[in-house]
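Below is how a single chain appears once it has passed through the pipeline. First comes the sequence as given, then the structure the pipeline wrote out for it. We keep one example in the README because the format questions we get most often are answered faster by looking than by reading.
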Amino acid sequence: MEPHLSVLERCVGPGDATVLVARCSLAGASGRYMIMLTRRRLAVTARNWLTRRLRLHLNLELRHLSDVSWAHEPRLGGVRLSVTAIDGVREHFLIDTTDAVGVEHLLASLFADPLDRHNVGEVVTIKASGA
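Resulting structure:
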């Protein structure tokens, strides 16, 4: 997890606060992924299984995301987050968590009212599955 964090921390701007860091998977892709949400930004890192190369997969301000949806996936052990990036690419992430209600509450506070995204309130601590 450490290499992912060093890349993700560079995505947090001054005055922004990280509200979620968790392992995740990307539909139709292999490798290890880590998702970070701040009050203003979504960033995802990817690590290739074979080469172990780490790269920034996605790094966008929340206002540049559209068609955001999420749903608890009890069979899969997490919360599915789907977003469309500014370039029109649709992404589907499964956030690994044992606290799906907490993640859903957090996502609702970030995405429910686009005029009030920066007033998220309390940071929710999320327990990752398998951690």
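The chain has one domain: 2-113.

See the next section for the split statistics.
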